[in-house]
């Protein structure tokens, strides 16, 4: 329950005058679930609304300040209670993201609200529910539902692969597809397969391990070996996709920034009937040899206007790992921009001709 009042001046309401709101929290929501242990969530709210005075007394929250700020505070508490009704606990990160969403919705009335994003469950396993945690993640998941081929682009930690895996397992459990195929190019920084010990499968296993780890989060670990033996789940390097037609499958290509344009074309043309593809990658982490263009960069130029293909972009604000990861991503992006600017303004150095050295024409001339 919320109440709002505005102090009139000379009998006439003014937009500049302060407004106040009294928010009554129902008894079914213990205050600790809304305010956090040691008022940790309340501090996040106060930091998010520095121009509003927020006070708590018993099960009532009072906010005073500008009408717009007070309205957002009211809406935030209403959204938080809607999320709590689903049984999902609130975290400091979720409250911060909720405030950002509500501020974005001020300029965009069609902008989703926090309760719509945080309660969109994809998959539940062993008491753990996988769901989007940011607006861009929600848009990414929606794109997977609506399109046959989706490209998920963004830095590390934004949930590109994890959410795609969750959608693949969901589609398999709903019998929308008959199998899941997970693949990655076996390219990593500073390593070559020939230097790794063991057989071919032992050599490529470290490159595919992140996909196995995600599977174990989403399915009963005891069922995974059985499903893999039956071919229902296949985890293989990208080279194994050549020459195949993949029907009735949910196919995920991870680390796609390390594909060449030829490999990307090969992979996309494996698409068969009743299949869906998700391609994920981060173009700021390309480990290809110097001079090789990334297939993920090229494909954005080629397929941008093709129907039933979607490009979903995530950024540092969608990083759901430690907060420092987002700051690291931003710092590297600023550094890359500065490097490109420096390279554009620095004239190329002319080669120094040593005294007495022959010119290229002289050095390649043959005597008759």
Would you give an account of this structure?
With 368 residues, the chain is an alpha/beta fold. It folds into two domains: 15-118, K Homology domain, type 1 (Ribosomal Protein S8, Chain: A, domain 1, 2-Layer Sandwich), CATH 3.30.1370.10; 123-321 and 328-340, Rossmann fold (3-Layer(aba) Sandwich). 41% of the residues lie in helices and 16% in strands. It is built from 13 helices and twelve strands. It has helices at residues 31-35, 40-48, 67-85, 92-107, 114-118, 135-146, 160-173, 200-218, 223-229, 261-268, 295-302, 323-345, 360-364; strands at residues 2-6, 19-24, 53-57, 60-65, 123-125, 128-130, 149-153, 179-184, 233-237, 249-253, 276-281, 309-313. A six-stranded parallel sheet has the order 9-8-10-11-7-12. It is globular, with a radius of gyration of 27 Å.
Total beta strand runs: 12
Which class best fits the helix and strand makeup?
alpha/beta
CATH topology of the largest domain: Rossmann fold
How confident overall, as mean pLDDT?
82
Distance between the termini: 100 Å
Task: Please state the second-level CATH architecture of the largest domain.
Answer: 3-Layer(aba) Sandwich
Q: Order of SSEs, N→C? A: EEHHEEHHHEEHEHEHHEEHEHEHH
Q: In what range is the share of β-strand residues? A: 15-25%
In DSSP terms, counting alpha (H) and pi (I) runs of 4 or more, how many helices? 13
CATH classification, class level of the largest domain:
Alpha Beta
Poorly predicted runs of 5 or more residues:
4-15, 363-368
What is the topology, as strand order, of the major beta sheet? 9-8-10-11-7-12
- Overall shape: it is globular
């Amino acid at each position: 329950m919320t109440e709002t009042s505005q102090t009139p001046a000379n009998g006439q309401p003014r937009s500049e005058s302060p407004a106040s709101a009294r928010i009554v929290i129902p008894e079914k929501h213990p205050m600790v679930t809304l305010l956090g242990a040691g008022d940790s969530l309340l501090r996040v709210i106060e930091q998010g609304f520095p121009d509003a005075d927020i006070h708590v007394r018993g099960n009532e929250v009072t906010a005073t300040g500008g009408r717009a700020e007070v309205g957002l505070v009211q809406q935030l508490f209403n959204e938080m209670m809607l999320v709590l009704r689903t049984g999902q606990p609130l975290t400091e990160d979720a409250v911060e993201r909720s405030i950002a969403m509500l501020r974005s919705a001020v300029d965009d009335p069609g902008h989703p609200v926090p309760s719509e994003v945080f309660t969109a469950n994809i998959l539940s396993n062993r008491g753990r529910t996988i769901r989007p945690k940011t607006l861009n993640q929600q848009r990414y998941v929606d794109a997977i539902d609506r399109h046959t081929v989706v490209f998920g682009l963004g830095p590390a930690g934004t949930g590109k692969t994890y959410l795609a895996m969750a959608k693949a397992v969901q589609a398999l459990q709903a019998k929308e597809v008959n199998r899941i195929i997970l693949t990655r190019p076996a390219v990593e920084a500073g390593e070559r397969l020939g230097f790794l010990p063991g057989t071919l499968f032992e050599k490529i296993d470290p490159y595919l391990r992140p996909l196995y780890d995600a599977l174990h989060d989403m399915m009963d670990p005891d069922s995974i070996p059985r499903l893999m033996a039956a071919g229902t789940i296949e985890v293989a390097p990208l080279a194994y996709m050549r020459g195949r037609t993949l029907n009735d499958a949910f196919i995920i290509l991870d680390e796609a920034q390390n594909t060449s344009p030829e490999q990307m074309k090969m992979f996309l043309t494996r698409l068969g009937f009743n299949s869906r593809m998700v391609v994920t990658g981060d173009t700021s982490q390309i480990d290809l040899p110097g001079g090789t263009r990334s297939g993920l960069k090229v494909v954005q130029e080629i397929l941008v206007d093709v129907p039933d293909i979607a490009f979903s972009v995530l950024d540092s604000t969608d990083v759901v790992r430690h907060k420092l990861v987002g700051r690291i991503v931003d710092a590297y992006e600023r550094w890359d921009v500065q490097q490109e600017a420096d390279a554009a303004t620095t004239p190329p150095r002319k080669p120094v001709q040593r005294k007495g050295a022959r010119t290229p024409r002289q050095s390649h001339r043959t005597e008759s």
